[in-house]
Amino acid sequence: MAKPANTDAPPVVVLLGVVHGDPEGEGRLGKWLHAVQPRIITVEISPFSVRYRGRAQAYWRRLWEKALAQLPPGAAASLALARVAAQLELPFEYRISRKWAKTQGAALHLVDWAAPARRHLPRYAPELLSPDNLRALWEQSPRGSLAEFATREYRRAQLALGGKLRRPLPPSPAEVRREALQAARLRRWARPGVRLMHIGGWEHLVPWPDGHGLPHLLADLNPVTRLLVEDPGERD
To answer: Which domain of life does this protein belong to (predicted)?
Structure first.
């Protein structure tokens, strides 16, 4: 039986930064959830995105296969198309968190702003998955694999966490609003003495020198920011 929370203790907030589409993300996230044992999990995805993806996924896959049939064999292994394929799936952050929360009796909350998904997801079928667009992406694809891309992104994240990387551009007003909304929702679910893990894109979980990022917005909760690629057993 779980011990009752200490209502005099502050919330325990872990911000776990991921690279979206990380091909090793499922296993890595499972290890983190097992190590931290959060009672509350929040994920950077909106309920709208989950519903829309669930309805559209079969159609997207048919368009994907039809377009791939017009490309040379092996085109899907290119970095650009591998990233597109990852975009079509329900994010591993949501799938693994949902499964873990269900088996462990933890609470799961989806805290992202729906507006970006409402703008972008309806464009997947007519634009992203059009044969011409996928051919152009394949022809212009950078070298390397999705795993190598994720490794490079985690290196950037580590530099940013160490204060050695600055944003190339300041966040847009929409991004500022998005982070503020996520922070407000995390704060709503935080409970005294209870472990809360938030899982989201690393760019939002870095305390940027310009004052943006969830660590700044939640500073009074003293959150701990970690990266999915790290060993959950390691501590500073």
So the answer is: Bacteria
